[in-house]
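## Example record

The block below lists the input lines for one assembly entry, exactly as stored, with component labels intact.
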Amino acid sequence: MSRTARSARRRWLGETRYHLVGLTASLLFLAPLAWSVLVSFKPSLEARQPPLPPWPVEGFSFQNYENLAKFGAGIWTYSGNSLTVSAMTVLGTVIISLLAGYGFSRFQFPLKNVLFVLIISTVMIPFQSILTPLFLILTKLGLQNTLAGIVCVYVTLQMPFSIFMMRNAFDSVPKDIEDAARADGASVFVMLRRIMLPLVLPGVATVAIFAFLASWNEFLAALILLTDQKKYTLPVLMAAIRSGQFGTIDWGAVQSGVTMMMAPCLALFLLLQRYYIRGLTAGAVK
Amino acid sequence: MPREHAVMPNTSSAADTIRPRRSRQRRKQLTGFLFVVPAVLLVLVFFVIPLCMAFWMSLHNWPLLGKPRFIGLDNYVSLLDDARFWGAMQFTALYTVVVTIAIFAVAFPLALFVDKGRPLTKFYRTSFFLPMVVGFSSASLLWAWLMNVDAGLFSPAAFRLGLTDKPVNLLAEFDTTFWSIVIMVVWKTAGFNMIILLTGLQGISAEVQEAARMDGASNWLRFRRITLPLMRRTIALALILSVAGSILAFDQFYIIADGGPRNSTVTAVYWIFSQSFVSFRLGYGAALSMVLLLILVTISVIQLRLLRTPEGM
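Predicted C-alpha cells for the full assembly:
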C-alpha cells in the first residue's frame, strides 16, 4: 500500500471515529428532549406506561393536551399569564435598557459612573436573598400577586446584563453619524429612534432573547410572589401538578406541559442563535 | 490581566460636550441623566431598597401578620444552633463541589471536541447546547418523569434489561436521588460551559500551538503547558458561574425530590424558602439570606483573586 493511500485511510478512520463520538454524544443530549415531546403525543393511557418505545404506538393523539387543559383555571389562563409576563418583561427590558445604554454611552453627567457601577454590581447579589423584602414591597405597592409586580422584578433582574450590552452596542456606533444628524437639526429622541436604533438592533435582539428566556422559565420568584392559583405562570402550574396538588399525577399531561414550556425556547434559540451566543460571549470576555 | 476598563468613564464623548454656552451643557447633562433614570429607579426600588430591608428585617422578629419586634442579633445567634440550616449548607456545599467537577469533566472535552471547524461541528455544538435553553423548571419536570418508578424511563428500562430484579424507586434513596439530579444538571448546563470554554480556546493563537508542535510537544503537554494557562481567565469565569449557580440551586431539588428523601436534599435556598414562606419566619429567613449572600460574595472574590494571579493555578 502506498504512503498516500495509507495516510488517506488513517484520516478516514479518524474522521469516522470523530463523527461516531459526535453523533452518540448528540443523541445523549437530545434524547431527553425528544422523549418528552414524543410521549406528549401518546394517547393518555399509553402515556402512563413506561415510554418504551418513546413514540406513540397506538397513533398520535392530543389527549394529553386535552387533559392538561382541564387543570385549575384552564391552560389558556396559565399560558396567557406566562405569555403576558414574558412579553411585558421583554418590552420593559428593551425600552429601559435602550434608554439607559444610550445615556451611559453618549452623555456626561454627575454620578454617571457611580450609577453605572451600582446597576452592574447587582449581578453579584443573588436575588434569592431579597425575595422576602420584595414580597413586602410589592404588597405595599399593591403589586403582590399581580403579573405587573412580577414583571417589575424580572425587568430589574435583567438590568445589569441588558444595560451592559446596550451601552457596549452604543459605544461601537461611530460618533460621526450623530454629528451629521445633529447638524441636520434632529432632536435627541428622533436621533435615538431613527438613527441609533437601527444600528444597535443586534444588541436589542440579544437583550430581548435573554429577557424572554429568563422570564418564561423563572420559577422561584413566581412561586413566592404569585399566591393566587389563577395568576400562576406555567412553571408554577406544572410544579403544582407534579406535586400532586391536583390529585394523581398525570405524567402524560405533565409531558405535554413540558413540551409547551420548551417549544418557544427551542424555537427562539434555533432562529436567533447568533444573537444568543453573542450575549453569552459578551459576558464571557468582559 | 484585569480589564477594568469595562466600567471606566467614556471620556471620548466629553469632547463634543465642550460648548461655549454653559446652559447648553447643563441641558445635555440633564438629558443624559433622564435617560438613565428609569433604570436607576427600578434598581433602587426593586433591588437596593429590598437589600437594605433584608438586613433590617434580619434584626427583627418579623411575622407575616402583626408587628415586627426588634431583637438585635438574636436571629443570627439562633442561626448558629440551627442544625437543619447547617445541614442544608453542608448538602449545598457537597452538591456544588460534585456538580462543578462533573460539569467541567464533561464540558472541557466537549469544548475541545467542537473547537476545530469540521463538517457537522456546528450541529454538534447546537445539540450539546440545546438543553441549556429550556428552563430549570422544564428540565426538572422532564427528569422527575424520567426518574419516576412507574411511568418513567430509567427504572423500567433497567428492569426490562434485567439489570434490576424489580423497578427501583430512584427517589427513595439519597444516593440515587442525588446522582440522578447531578446527571440532569450536567446534561442541562455542560453545553453552556462548553461555549464559555470555547471562547477561551479560540482566543489562543494557532501559531503558538503550531510552534509547540514543531518543538515536538505532545498533545497532553501542549494542553497542560499552553492551553490551560492561557485559558485561566475563561476557566475562572466558568468556575465562578458554576459555583454561584450551584450554591443557589433550588428548582431541581424542589420539583424533582421535594427536598427528600427524608429532607436529605434540602439546599440553602430551599431552607430559606421554607423558613420564610412556609413557616413565615420572615426575619429569620432574612438573616439566613444575609449569611448566604455573604458566603457567595466571599467565594466569588476569593475565586477571582486565586485565578487571576499566575501562582493560582
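The mean pLDDT of chain A is 91. Residues 86 and 215 of chain A are 5 Å apart (CA to CA).
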